[in-house]
Amino acid sequence: MRLVLLGAPGSGKGTQAARLKDHLQVPHISTGDLLRAEVAAGSKLGLEAKEVMARGELVSDAILLGMLEDRFSRPDTAGGFILDGYPRNLAQADALDALLNRIGQPMDFAVQLEVATELLVERIAGRAQAEGRADDNPESVRKRLHVYETSTAPVIEFYRQHGQLTVVDGVGTMDEVFTRIVEAIEPVREVG
To answer: Residues that bind AMP, according to the entry (predicted)?
Structure first.
C-alpha cells in the first residue's frame, strides 16, 4: 500500500505513521528525515541540498523529488510506503503523482487527519512546554497552521479529485485514531 498522510502540525501524523508502518509492514518515509540522511551520507543530492541550506534557502522540489525517487527504488518499498511531510503544495502533489505513475507505483490513498485548530494549538503548546521549546507559542502556532491550511488545501483537493482522499477524525486516543485509519484503508488494501 502506498499512502500519504496529510494533517496540520500537531495532528498526530508522525505518531500514526509509526504505528501504520508496523501494521502495513512498509517503510515510513519522512521527507525531513530523508533530507537529513542524504546530507549526512554525502550523496550527490544530499550535497546539493547542503549547499542550498547553507545559503539559508529552501531545498528545491526537484532535489526532494530526486531523493524520493531514489528512496522509492529501494527494495523495502516494493510493497508500498507511508509518506509523511510531502507533498506540501499542489506543484509537489503533481510532481509526486507523475513520478509514481512513471515508476509504476501509483498512490493508493491519502489520509487527512482532521483536528480543530484550537485543539492543535493546545497540543503543540503542550508539546512545546514538555520539550522546553519557546518558539511554539500560541501565536506562532496559529501562523504555522494558517500557512499549512493555505498551502495544503489544494493538495487535499488534488487527492479528493483523484478519488484517493479519506478524511479521518484525528481526535481521540492514539488507538482510536489508528483504528479509524485502518478501517478507512483496509478495504482498499484488500482490493489492491
So the answer is: 31, 36, 57-59, 85-88, 92, 133, 144
